[in-house]
């Protein structure tokens, strides 16, 4: 740590001398996942070419960040000039007028290069409110080596029933090898993202056309029974507290034969520096069942500028830079081409070098193309969003339902009990919010 | 500062300068009262302000429909927020879990605290280091200790406990799924035993050694000494420990948030967590305000009962 | 047959060993966290956990590269010492007044003070946020000092009050008869006697402020963010993070841990109630 002192002094000296002409400070609130941390590192390049802009970073864990940003934007606290927010918030906040429209983007930015589904998801009535930093759908990860050894073969898009058979065959708990890893940790962005896509595949939906929840219906019952059986029988111990991260760790250390989760994990499971199974991972689309509609989700982290910001132009300049083709090239140059933030630009997937370097890219592309938030379920719904419902109440309802589902998974509640409570909870919230009487 | 306090200040200064203090106890006492009030008032005033302003706002918010995500739509709804909070699925479970959590951690930390304090009271090799190690957990941030316990110790696959279990040929326990509340109690006790140890250990220092020696000469065994000399001596510090711990235990939040998120089901949801989930997941300020006020009422009832039980130890001079 | 001396020595040995075992058990999680901070991410997640491993500094280097540790640490220091200072300035006179000039309302006041601690912070977050915005206190150290002083004040008053209560009144009476003023009484008589108690109150307040993670996360963004915010930025939703998290946690807890260890000796030495009884 001692060596640090000199650079610190130097840095502060430079900072002091630069304040004289660094006119604008942009405070950026962001989530701390790998791609964002990389962006923070590379931002020195941006500051070099924009000496009049100083970047101030507030990096927080996802849930903390969300509550922090919401409090600030809703009270017009003005603490942030640029926020990393999800697809869900962008739509809601954009409609409230809390975000600055992303207009007059430079021609070189090439807005049309952004995946249409992602662009739609970040727009309200045709106005774009956030620039996507990366986007993801969900897909199936499997261990090619184990499949081969057991004589199994994976199809392009397996069904959940097939997945169950695979998991059953490959489950060897005595060797700490588990048939399947899935999210079980309660949370609207954790287990409910997966559970909703699974339920979609089983033909379920969150609400009928009149906003009545349907948890006690046959589709949800089948879906949740299937989910708890599958993960309970062939999943790792402690599945009900595993989120994305825990499962990634398990998969990377070779303890899962199958895993259905976000497409961004492709870059992590194939990276030998963090994965013990980097060479043995296969990819398939997220499982279907009675339908393939809504089987894979759609999510994006985007950069957006709150209306209360006092440095909008500088913030926009940075947002444009961080989501540009130029930035992708910079990442490719520094960290290798497979590390390009995935899922945002069509041109990335037309780049042969990328497609060759990233074995997961083809499946990611198909998944993103098939994800349609405007038509997410077998039966018609009044909402948009695949693994989410774009109304403000969804966060709270799905959080509570998520708890109940994880209770059913851990066995502290029976499936019918959990679903009955889920129905009661969501009806209550919808009544309170005056959607239904 | 109030006028009284200024006057008191002036009085003290002049008296100190001239040295004309009376030596009669009666007027001194009256002056003492005034000084007492003057000295108390800054604390009381700042706490009043701290209490009054947010509290008034909270009361107001609890009566309107105020969701951060719906600006501009804030009608008066009367007691609707209270109704929804009290009939929430998690409310009864939350109240019971809060009670369990507080009582078990109190029991564990006080008993362990007394035993440990007595244990380290006699000198032995490396006592200083042992003391330091004993109180260390209290210095760790709640979030950090929850993360360490969850990921490094209790994790059913790669945790230390799982490894120990496997070493003895047992199947590792999936702590947060099978014994969620117990796991939380474990973590929280780990944090608060050191606090009890710290307070009780220092209190042991003032225990009269001669008294103990005299008792020993009279033929009293170690147990009798513990029961008749040590325990009564520790009564007041124990009361302090209970009082302070209760306040913090009633609002345990970070540990639950980091480990179980209140689940599975409502197994580890306490009132503080319930209010949190309503306030910051739902951004329903109205409901969170109502919940906060209900929690204050409950906490005050608990405090009242507690003070009834142990209060004599705290305020009366032994 | 063992002589009395031998029995006693044997007992001390046994009790000492037991004390060591208990202490090691309680300290183990911290030790494990520190060990993990020197592992690679893969080793940190290994099962069974590795006891012998090649220590690496990569986690610390990563943190050093990504965030300015000293900025956060300095904020923590300023905020916790600042709030403790103000807290003591308010608490000592209040406790003095309540302990030695008891009135009918003393008990009620004490209880009321404690009850201010019981309003859950989440319940008042929005009111406080709005007030802070109004007064320009968002993301300032001043703002945090104010909040911490207020939330710790009730506890501090209570603790000082109980320590003052321990002091035999005769000593004060004696000082009064000698013509000491209230200020002299506090400074010359009370404070020296209650030194140990006050020290533990100060320590408690420091720890509580240092570790407070709700207000610090919600009311600061960058310039006033303390170490709790630094920790929150490493509990990542993606990728392996146990080792890095352990490293940042070690860094965040180290200053207060070391401070606690150093002052612990003073604490025990300073507590000399026995002498005055």
Automatic annotation (TrEMBL), chain A:
Subcellular location: Periplasm
Keyword Signal: yes
InterPro entries in the cross-refs: Bact_solute-bd_prot1, SBP
Keyword rRNA-binding found: no
Leader peptide range in chain numbering: 1-22
Gene Ontology cellular-component annotations: periplasmic space
Domain of life: Bacteria
Keywords: Signal
Family: Belongs to the bacterial solute-binding protein 1 family.
Name of the protein described by the UniProt record: Sugar ABC transporter substrate-binding protein
From TrEMBL, chain B:
Pfam families associated with the record: BPD_transp_1
Highest taxon of source: Bacteria
Entry-linked PROSITE patterns: ABC_TM1
Gene3D superfamilies for the chain: MetI-like
A GO term from the CC aspect: plasma membrane
Compartment list: Cell membrane
Signal sequence annotation: none
GO terms, biological process: transmembrane transport
Keyword tRNA-binding in annotation: no
Membrane topology term: Multi-pass membrane protein
Keywords per UniProt: Cell membrane, Membrane, Transmembrane, Transmembrane helix, Transport
Residue ranges of domain ABC transmembrane type-1 in the record: 95-306
CDD domains for the chain: TM_PBP2
Transmembrane residue ranges: 37-63, 99-120, 132-149, 181-203, 234-254, 285-307
SUPFAM superfamilies for the chain: MetI-like
Family (UniProt): Belongs to the binding-protein-dependent transport system permease family.
Protein name: Sugar ABC transporter permease
Organism field: Marinobacter lutaoensis
Taxonomic lineage of the native organism: Bacteria, Pseudomonadati, Pseudomonadota, Gammaproteobacteria, Pseudomonadales
Automatic annotation (TrEMBL), chain C:
Pfam families assigned: BPD_transp_1
Membrane topology of this protein: Multi-pass membrane protein
Stretches that traverse the bilayer: 12-35, 72-98, 110-132, 144-164, 185-210, 241-262
Domain (ABC transmembrane type-1) ranges: 73-263
InterPro entries, alphabetized: BP-dep_ABC_trans_perm (IPR050901), MetI-like (IPR000515), MetI-like_sf (IPR035906)
Biological process according to GO: transmembrane transport
Database matches in Gene3D superfamilies: MetI-like
GO annotations of cellular component type: plasma membrane
Principal location: membrane
UniProt keyword annotations, A-Z: Cell membrane, Membrane, Transmembrane, Transmembrane helix, Transport
Family recorded in the similarity comment: Belongs to the binding-protein-dependent transport system permease family. MalFG subfamily.
PANTHER family on file: INNER MEMBRANE ABC TRANSPORTER PERMEASE PROTEIN YCJP, MALTOSE TRANSPORT SYSTEM PERMEASE-RELATED
Name this protein carries in UniProt: Sugar ABC transporter permease
